[in-house]
Known about the structure:
Elements: E1 4-9, H1 17-29, E2 34-39, H2 61-72, E3 75-81, H3 89-98, E4 105-106, E5 115-116, E6 122-128, H4 133-152, E7 161-165, H5 173-189
Parallel strand pairs: 1-2, 1-3, 3-6, 6-7
Antiparallel strand pairs: 4-5
Amino acid sequence: MTKKILVLDGNPKSRSFCQHLSDLYEIEASEYFNIKRFNLSQMVFNPSLENGYEARQELEPCLVDFQKAILWADHIVIVTPIWWGGIPAKLKGLFDRVFLPDFSFKYEGNNPLPLQLLKGKTSRIIMTMDAPSDYAQEQAAPAIAQLDLYTLQFCGIEKAKINLLDSMISANSDNKLYWETQVKDLASKGE
């Protein structure tokens, strides 16, 4: 059976290095695996979970499609920038709206720990940032914890493999070529 991979370009900008890396991953991986691709910049939805979990908020069509793709996928690849030590607001809104009770987790009885409904899936997070290398790990830590530990792992997805591409602002063509080669290699292996 061919591995099923969901690729999400998590940058709300329509043109970015994240989009470029997502393109490279999709093109390379599609030679070997089944791929579904989403671009946050093209998804039209209200990112605010208006009523929390107290009332059902109808999902926009792109969110319904994204939920179906999550259930379909064996492996989820998220390419996102780090802005202000976190993920972009629209990307956070995507997870708020999609990773809902009875879809990605649920509580049973008085157990304070959730039943994880997305077990059996793996993930890769590729993050870009402008911070200099000396501060990259420190600045990335909150975003990694939010996205991997408190979102993906909370719902049962295995601990993500992380690629941190730092100092985009001072990157030269050799740096970018190295990152592009790295992403293509990951894609060819379905990682």
